[in-house]
Amino acid sequence: MVIRISNYFNSSVLKMALPTNVSSMRCKIKQRNSSSRFSVECGLLSIIYNMSKNAFYFFALDWAKEQQKRGISVPRNMKELSSLCSEDWKKLPPHEKGIYKSRAKDNKIKAQMTVGNRTTIGESVAELELEQKRQEEFHQNMLQYIESIVGVGVRHDNLKNLKFIFIHVNWFYRRDIGINKYDFCPAEFAIAEFSILHGIQNVYHEILKVEIPLGWKRDALETSQETHQIPIELDDGEYDFALMYDKFSKFMERNKTGRRYPPLFTLKNSYPIVESLLQRLNEASGQSVDDYLIYSIEALFGELRNAAVKSVDERGIPLVLAETEFAKDYLSTMRGFECEFHKIVDVAQYCSKSIITRWGMTICDYCCEYLNVKMIEGVHCPYKNSFDINRQDTASGRTDNIDLKMKTLKILENRVTIADMNGVSKEYRDKVSTRSYEEEKNRRMENKVVIVDHAKANTSKSNTAALNLPMRPLRAPKTMAKALSGTQEGFELLNDVTNFPPIGGRGTVKKDTTRFKLPLGRGRGNC
């Protein structure tokens, strides 16, 4: 009996044997007198079930089969399998990688053509229900995790020391990769540790240099111009995703609990943006994205606030209100925590580094008072004046660097901008509309000022001659109009009523309507 892996979802045998936890299925599926291929393929089910069917998925499947044929045991854990075959995947020639990519593409097309109920836009109803159920389960697991972590901190009086990981990603363009699925091209990201006692710490920030594919440059320029102002294909940006993954993994290793990475907290609407960044980082290293969990920072904010206020007020705020309150971002105007690039460009409200700092300060503003944590400027709340910001920059070594400013200004001058409807960009209009002091002075000296004094215009001949003003009103012309100059008849013929042809109709002469004065009568209506 041989059941192929590609058909294991449609197999009635495996459907009956599939337990809730597929990873333990290899211990429950046993059949006597079965071929070795069946045991090999069934042993891989726990690996395949959770892997996304991309090119690396099919390579890992073939690699695991080859190892099983050689008598080498294959790990059942997806992470371990990915780490073992990642080196072989990197060494694989491009033409062989293309074979696996084509297999992944064909599998995707075949899955989309599966017969079943679909919506008006072609979505599978079964997949939508499964995805909705998966999202609900993920949401419940997230709330349970946050509630359990915060509850442990409250019971041990250690809530203010709990550490969480914040991440924010700016992007250039959004590309559709399926129905309600998008891929975001990252432009900048920042990740940091947060605790109520120490605020934001150990920030890892990068501005990226990515190659914009054909057809997406316009979208990238529009997004950049409207938000973060990062030029596309920045020369000084980081382009080595393998190096960035190495730094990112070291950052996560420091906060690892046992064998699990801590979840990454970001805005609820930014899940796919962070996933796109992690996908690029892991593709460069051959690792799996499923090792990281992305949770809602609004849910964390609501749970921390309710736990902190619990000693004073038993009434907690619901999740919807926490999301609304956190989305206000009342600290968006603060300065001093953005990166060097956004400091010079002066769009700190869009800087990823500034955004995660504002997240931490917002949580501290709602929690520190009830946890007896003293608010420190620059840690739990913004600075009150610009002098403290400059002093903090000096203490941290971020003094004014003229070379850095000139370099950034040069980048801004050379960046490409979007033209308006008339074909002229805003930067060009600002450039040509501004005049220097010398240009304005020369313009005023070249144009002589003429003063017109109407009170003296009729008395001075020199002024009237210079101004060329008329001394008396012009007379009407005595010449005949050009239209009438060639006519032989005079104006009298045109006005002759007696010789005018009859217009009574039907060839009859018009009746004479001349009124004669009647003689006087005797009155009373009698003539």
Automatic annotation (TrEMBL):
Residues 183-385 form the Maelstrom domain. GO terms for biological process: cell differentiation; male meiotic nuclear division; negative regulation of DNA-templated transcription; piRNA processing; regulation of miRNA-mediated gene silencing; spermatogenesis. Keywords: Cytoplasm, Developmental protein, Differentiation, DNA-binding, Meiosis, Nucleus, RNA-mediated gene silencing. GO terms for cellular component: nucleus; P granule. Residues 52-112 form the HMG box domain. It is found in: Cytoplasm; Nucleus. The keyword RNA-binding does not apply. InterPro entries: HMG_box_dom, HMG_box_dom_sf, Maelstrom, Protein_maelstrom. GO terms for molecular function: sequence-specific DNA binding. It comes from the Eukaryota. Its main location: cytoplasm. Belongs to the maelstrom family. This is Protein maelstrom.
